[in-house]
Amino acid sequence: MSLEMILFFVLALIAIGTAVGVLLSRSTVYAALYLVVNFVSVAIFYLLLDAPFIALSQVAVYAGAIMVLFLFVIMLLGLENIAGELQWQKMIWPLGMGAILLVEGVFLVIQRVGQNTYIGSTGTALSDPALLAKVLFTDYALPFELTAVLLLVAMIGAIVMSKHEKPVKEGQPR
Amino acid sequence: MIPISYYLILSAILFSLGALGVLLRRNALVIFMSIELMLNAANLTFVAFSRLYGSFDGQIFVFFVMAVAAAEVAVGLALVVAIYRSRNTIDIDSMNSLKG
Hints:
Chain A is mostly helical and about 170 residues long. Chain A is about 70% helix and about 0% strand. Chain A contains six helices and no strands. In chain A, helix 1 packs antiparallel against helix 2 and helix 2 packs antiparallel against helix 3. Chain A is extended. By secondary structure, chain B is an all-alpha fold. Chain B is built from three helices and no strands. In chain B, helix 1 packs antiparallel against helix 2. At the A-B interface, helix 1, helix 2, helix 3, helix 4 and helix 5 of A face helix 1, helix 2 and helix 3 of B.
């Protein structure tokens, strides 16, 4: 068993364990912290797959920005405690459906891809962010610009929805 | 050397756990976190195939998925805050009418 394989299995255990932690935790803060560990382990998978730019943006965007937003809302609204939410007798149907989904997915993977398609060296320098940027700003320039519009609209939407509407008093300028 | 099927099975497991989270939990914040888990599982598949075929397209799709996820979280959390203000709970079973 090679070192890469051992690293893969340890990371896979961490990723699955923290995902189960998100699923079963009794506090939203713990769920958010489990999710951070999950994001970081997936980022290390990206490093294993020769994608350092994606790995670093995963850490910066997901583990950084998105999780800070989550923790901010949790603390702002005081929603830490969600004990007593999980009831085992209600979980049978979703668990069954999840198991069916998983078996189907694994079956399709083994049937279509096969077990022996190895990720070998491809010859191209996939890990070079400069080459990635060249593809991103030539072939994908229009989607990239549209992303800016999407983020702007999302920002405006978030501001409009979370704005606190105060009742307007008579005779006072707003 | 790691077979691609290992990555695909791992991301299938992570996706199923995320889907289970959406189905099982009633707390809107934990449901959002489970959606992030599912997006991450899909991203892992993209990067694995990008590595397999030696092409940048998968990595660029992951980049766009991240941008969409950031937008989704910003809007979703604003919705959670707005709903908490009007109902004082974010239990999704209590969100059963369209009227504010």
